[in-house]
Amino acid sequence: MTTSTAPTVTPSRLRRTLALAGAETRLLLRNRTAVVNSVLLPLLLVAGVPVAGLGGDGPLGARLAVTAVAVTLVFLTYYNLVTTYVARREELVLQRMRSGELTPVEVLLGTATPTLLVTVVQVLLVLAGTAVIGEWSAPVDVVLPLVALVGGMALMTLLAAASTSFTRTAESAQITTLPLVVLASVTSGVMVPLAAFSDQVAQVLRLTPIEPIVELARLGLAGQTWDGRAVDWAGAWAAAPQPLLVLAAWIAVAAGVASRVFVWAPRR
Amino acid sequence: MQLTRPAPAPAGPTTGQAGPAVVVTDLRRRHGDVEAVRGISFEVHPGEVFALLGVNGAGKTSALEVLEGLAPAAGGTVRVLGADPLADRAAVRPHLGVLLQSSGLPSDLTVRETVALWAATLTAPRSVEEALAQVGLTDRAGLRVRSLSGGERRRLDLTLALLGSPRVIVLDEPTTGLDPESRRTVWTLVRQRVADGAAVVLTTHHLEEAEELADRIAVMRAGRIVLSGTAAEIAATQPATVRFTLPAGAPPLPDVPGATVVSAAPRVELHTRALQPVLVRLLAWADAHGLVLGGLQARAASLEQAFLAVADGADPS
């Protein structure tokens, strides 16, 4: 055999991923219930705050936005992606997609794109909602909340991929996603402020997967550290290294686990 | 259905017609404690169809999944166009067309959207409309995949497998669920690809499909290849059969060298690997005694006979 010199035009990774993402988004838009829920849920969250209140100190709009980031990432992004990946696996769609030129990462990312888009839209809707109810406050820093959102989406996607290894059906995702949901509720500092724990316990909780996302979002949006101290832009960045490192470490761990345990086809 | 010549395949990791397109050497694959493939070897050259036959659980699909780059081998090597289909995925995939035994497609996309999506991910896709026309799905292009029949879905699957003008095509039971007309269309498409130089590896439970398409055949049992060769060579591993009925009062059968009596008079069945001399001897004996051999049948062994013998666990001769 001889080595070929004929040129070939290989579609870029981005083009391939966008092709799948476009098809998946089209599928989402054809599901009216999913579309309506995507818009209604964040609006209900905003509308519910004046009625139910939102604990903690600082501007209400910023606290609402921090809550929206955490709640959306855990309850929408993570849960939806576990069910989507498992459903696609059981329908043999993942295996089909993997049999072509799409790489495994492209298949997973393309499949996740509609959920990730909805995540961003929901957070934006909450931000818009806070302005409508007159609770908007300018963020201390924009980059940190963006890093929290993007890093959070990456982490949720990888954790969802890893969680499919012990989720046999889309229905059983309601059970298998509970550990992370409960962990996030208790340890992330959204529902129970870390200041409510002893300092040693709080320092341990700062190492859990969702807490650094909340901490970064809170630093940027509310100008508050994990223990409730008010900070300016410089203070926010001075407090950011630990949550950034913890988030990066969790992303690396989740990527390693997902690449080892992800199963593409139903078990025989 | 419309049949047109496909676009030329893109150049790949290696080119030229001299060497094999697929080389499988002592391939092994495990599923937990079960050794599904136990050291099989074969080569497939450009312009050749190689069929893997075997009963369910023989290890055909397990072997193909390694060839498709979807699973790692537990031992041995697989080379597609000179490259490892798993480790050198990016080099192999643009030249590999895969039809899985069973696979899913997003059910709420239309047929045309599905083919267009697949085309957008390929290096050298053919025209969507041309591809649909080839498998007779043009009039179904606007329908959602969920509303297709099983046979139509299979044809859509085949469209995707052939859309990139692949140089190596792996077809796992390509015509399962197809009606006879659709099956012949699939055969024609495969033959076109082979005529253009593609190497095809297929599995099938339809023995006539293997006889119709395959240049060489391997029969697997319990993870091993137990027979291989052309359809005629494989069939020749089994004896020919002679059947007739002797009239009442006929003398005992003579000793016929090379023939084994499987069933005695009056409904006689003989097995032999030397059909012509045995027939000549038998007819001479009948003529000498003025006998008519009722319902005389002489049949060379078939691929099906050889396959069933292997499936039953008989050691091939």
What does this structure look like?
Chain B: Pfam families: ABC_tran (PF00005). Chain B: GO terms for molecular function: ATP binding; ATP hydrolysis activity. Chain B: This is ABC-2 type transport system ATP-binding protein. The complex is a heterodimer of chains A (268) and B (317). With 268 residues, chain A is mainly α. Chain A has one domain (13-261). Chain A is built from twelve helices and no strands. Chain A has helices at 13-29, 32-52, 60-90, 93-98, 104-132, 143-163, 173-176, 178-187, 199-205, 211-221, 233-238, 241-261. Chain B folds into two domains: 22-234, P-loop containing nucleotide triphosphate hydrolases (Rossmann fold); 239-300. Chain B has helices at residues 60-67, 89-92, 111-120, 128-134, 150-162, 180-195, 207-213, 231-235, 275-288, 303-311; strands spanning 22-31, 34-44, 49-53, 75-80, 96-99, 168-172, 199-203, 216-221, 224-229, 240-245, 259-263, 267-272, 294-299. In chain B, α3 packs across α4. Chain B is elongated. In chain B, 44% of the residues are buried. Residues 1-9 of chain B have low confidence and may be disordered. The chains are: A mainly alpha (268), B alpha/beta (317). The interface between A and B is large, with 35 and 38 residues.
In short, what is this structure?
The complex is a heterodimer of chains A (268) and B (317). By secondary structure, chain A is mainly α.
The CATH C-level name of the largest domain in chain B is Alpha Beta
Overall mean pLDDT of chain A: 89
Task: State the secondary-structure class of chain A.
Answer: mainly alpha
Number of domains of chain A: 1
Question: What would you say the CATH architecture of the largest domain in chain B is?
Answer: 3-Layer(aba) Sandwich
Annotation, overall tally of beta strands of chain B: 13
